[in-house]
Design brief:
124 residues; alpha+beta; three-stranded antiparallel β-sheet; 5 helices; 3 strands; elongated
Length: 124
């Protein structure tokens, strides 16, 4: 890997950058479509910047709804149609018709799911 790329990133981000560069290089060489885990906004920005360094690749971000903060990326060779690709995102529906459940908020649900061992960066 070109160490010059790493000099543009904070030391805490360098492991992620190295992983993404490896992914991008393998995607370009193997002509494969890849989906990332859920990315936070900074990670998505990093991946977008890195993809621009590979003219033979393209990417699409989607979090399941337009204002989603955390999003997955599809990275693929530029000749593949990625617009119709499944992002691998599934919805979890909670019935809040019970008055006690209706009092719960986002943090209650998220905390309970994380307590079950689900990872927020993974495709559940």
């Amino acid at each position: 890997m070109n160490t010059n790329i790493l000099s543009h990133y904070h030391p805490d981000e360098r492991g992620f950058v190295e992983k993404m560069v490896d992914w991008l290089e393998r995607t370009a060489l193997q002509h494969q479509l890849r989906r990332t885990d859920f990315l936070d906004p900074r990670q998505a920005q990093i991946v977008q910047a890195l993809v621009r360094r590979y003219p033979s690749l393209q990417m699409k971000l989607d979090g399941g709804y337009p204002q989603a903060e955390r999003q997955r990326a599809i990275i693929a060779p530029d000749y593949m149609d990625i617009e119709g690709q499944d992002m691998g995102i599934r919805l979890l529906v909670v019935d809040s018709s019970d008055a006690k459940i209706a009092e719960l908020d986002h943090g209650d649900y998220l905390g309970s799911m994380l307590g079950l061992g689900l990872k927020r960066e993974k495709n559940w």
